[in-house]
Description:
Helices cover 57% and strands 0% of the residues. The chain is mainly α. α3 packs across α4.
Amino acid sequence: MSCGEPHETDCSEVLDHLYEFLDHEMPDSDCTKFETHFEECSPCLEKYGLEQAVKKLVKRCCGHDDVPTDLRAKVMGRIDLIRAGQAVPEHDLTAAPPEPQEPVAQRRSTASPSPQES
């Protein structure tokens, strides 16, 4: 998204780091650049307002739920992998492991014969 106007801080940079700004996880100098950008760019200000509203809604609706310890450990482990630049598993770390399946040959031999086989 871009408003088409030139800015000191590009719209794409602002949108790429919007959550860092919302979560107060960036240096004050960058926060000042973003605030200046929002004063100049209404599309980015609108996106900021929308994301801020969603964040508040999630906090209000889900902010009181305790996160299970094992889920927190899995998420933090994945974050550590990403920060270290290591490959992250494709499968869902929060899902239960899949049930082992019998080989097809065993399933056929233990199944009751079909009416055509009788």
